Amino acid sequence: MPVPRYSLDALTEFTVRVFRHHGVPEADAQQAADVLRAGDRRGIDSHGVARLLAYHRKLDAGVTNPAPQIRVVRELPGTATVDGDNGLGLVVGPAANRIAMDKAQAVGSGWVSVCNTNHFGIAGYYVLEALKQDLIGWAMTNASRLVVPLWGAERRLGTNPIAVGFPALEEPPIVIDMATSTVPYGKIEMARRLGQSIPHGWGIDAEGQSTTDPAAVVEGGGLVPLGGERERSGHKGYALSGMVDVLSGVLSGANWGPFTPPFGLGLEGGETRVGKGIGHCFGALQVAGFRDPLSFKQEVDHWIRTMRGTAPATGTNGPLVPGDPERIAAAERERDGVPLSPAVLADLRTVAHETGVPFD
Amino acid sequence: MPVPRYSLDALTEFTVRVFRHHGVPEADAQQAADVLRAGDRRGIDSHGVARLLAYHRKLDAGVTNPAPQIRVVRELPGTATVDGDNGLGLVVGPAANRIAMDKAQAVGSGWVSVCNTNHFGIAGYYVLEALKQDLIGWAMTNASRLVVPLWGAERRLGTNPIAVGFPALEEPPIVIDMATSTVPYGKIEMARRLGQSIPHGWGIDAEGQSTTDPAAVVEGGGLVPLGGERERSGHKGYALSGMVDVLSGVLSGANWGPFTPPFGLGLEGGETRVGKGIGHCFGALQVAGFRDPLSFKQEVDHWIRTMRGTAPATGTNGPLVPGDPERIAAAERERDGVPLSPAVLADLRTVAHETGVPFD
């Protein structure tokens, strides 16, 4: 049976109505739905409507604030800390990102760290917003513990993604959007469900040893940082994950490391708190603060074409440029709609049932 | 026979006199030697006096400018592009980094991209300078081609390092300093010399296939980006390397990617030029622009202790914190001096012979 597909517009309309149902102000409901749409559109299925049930449950339980008073608690011309008042990260994130972009437009560079916020969708969304203004953009967030530091046998860090975008002229922009773990947790869960083994370098067991058994990763083990074991420089992925955690969590006064609360109710993590909510960090640079923007974008085109023009490794079509897979997915999903798995469909029907917002 | 050791002061004195011999102004000679000293001190032997012969040869041949007029060619309060006038990167880098730090002190965040410069030593040096001012610091540089993009069979990128530093209070600071390739080229050359095989995930052969033969990497192959093959997310290391290249090379108007010139005469790379010299990028953030600096540093201490307190993986002593290995090496080298291999000693004696500066 083919997986049913739903149009982006239909999913967005449903999402807006669900947020509205919870008392999220109209503009914020539209904003939050726009971020989720970007995840579904770009093929990052784990970060689109697949998370709507979790958002719904937290709003329903009064755990997330539907109408936050987002405020700047400290700032300089090129920096700010934003307190998200425990709102949806899908609303707080875009507001804080706009502050970073405004600062970049004013003084050339703007960096904003955010506390008291929640899961913010795909990191790539924020740099795509920066690209609309021809800004170089960064977005990072910490997340609940899934990843072990190199040589550790306990989960201490999230998959802490980094997104970075560079505008191009005729070519599509460079859009990096990557977790700092080798793979997302979903890949481990999927292998476990299918009874498959996983490659070495994805996860460790409860003793901190590399394992090919996904169940051992889920039950007491954890994901490894990009690189994996020491021999392949897993300390580098750990360092990058730590950088994201400090910029997002420690710098803003949010929770960090093992204290970071989970994105959904009843999930592991953050039983002890050291700050407020989770943390994000946004950065923006004005290209004109460095170089004529037109010549910069022309040269980014040249960079992109140079990488694409690399002689291909045998058995491949040659290098891609960061952002290519998501762009290809976006074209396909705009044309054909978003495929929803039976599990996600069931979740959305639960949301529909519990909110009275019609689905299907 | 034990490897002879030389005191940091003796090596610094020799280095200063060599640069002085080439007409490098006194303050610049001291500055350049200070950067090289940091490499030797912190145990990054490939980036200390081991490179002095290459600097000497380029100055001797008139290829590097001993007395550059370093200037800001474009700026905003939080950004600048610096033209290094083809000076030593060991002099241009520190000057540009100071501009980034001054901007962070003025408006909270400062980012400086640098063109027309040369090899700048260890990236970690620059964030240690930022830490002296309690700033969060970044340093990046591009470098000549050694690394293949994922799915490529040609070298297109350098080992393009990223350094980031966060100040702590009672604990030593977090100092990340990492190449974006899985391993440095020196590890491949070393294995080849010793007739040893290398692990999968370090390099590819001329067809772009993973290889355990170091000779295949050296002869027509290349290093792989952090992560290695696709299954272990080599696209992420490639993306990070690309980020460094665009921020350092493209943004400043330097050369980038395969066009980046090599650090020494007669080495491969950069036969075609698309800009001026190599490129660096420095960033600095003022902690007080986000949060009370004392409470931030206390919380960084807590972060560090939390990571150190992770249950250790079997067979290890548990996680380190980025910067630990270099700090341990520094204590040892300050006490016992810097071990110099026969090859490096021979190089330094060549420098001594050609400049008339006494060594030993």
Write a compact overview of the structure shown.
Two copies of one chain form a homodimer. By secondary structure, chain A is α+β, with helices and mostly antiparallel strands.
Shape of chain A: globular
* Class computed from helices, strands and strand pairing of chain A: alpha+beta
| Total number of strands of chain A | 11
Distance between the termini of chain A: 18 Å
Strand order of the largest sheet of chain A: 2-3-4-10-5-6-7
Word description of this protein:
- 2 copies of one chain form a homodimer.
- By secondary structure, chain A is an alpha+beta fold.
- Chain A is built from 11 helices and 11 strands.
- In chain A, strands 2-3-4-10-5-6-7 form a 7-stranded mixed sheet, sandwiched between helices.
- The radius of gyration of chain A is 20 Å and the shape is globular.
- The mean pLDDT of chain A is 96.
- Chains A and B meet through strand 2, strand 3, helix 4, strand 4 and strand 7 of A and strand 2, strand 3, helix 4, strand 4 and strand 7 of B.
Topology summary:
Two copies of one chain form a homodimer.
Chain A: E1 5-6, H1 8-21, H2 26-41, H3 52-60, E2 71-76, E3 79-83, H4 89-107, E4 109-117, H5 124-132, E5 135-141, E6 162-166, E7 174-178, H6 185-194, E8 203-204, H7 214-218, E9 222-223, H8 234-250, E10 278-286, H9 293-308, H10 324-336, E11 338-339, H11 342-355
Parallel strand pairs in A: 3-4
Antiparallel strand pairs in A: 1-11, 2-3, 4-10, 5-6, 5-10, 6-7, 8-9
Helix pairs in contact in A: 1-2, 2-4
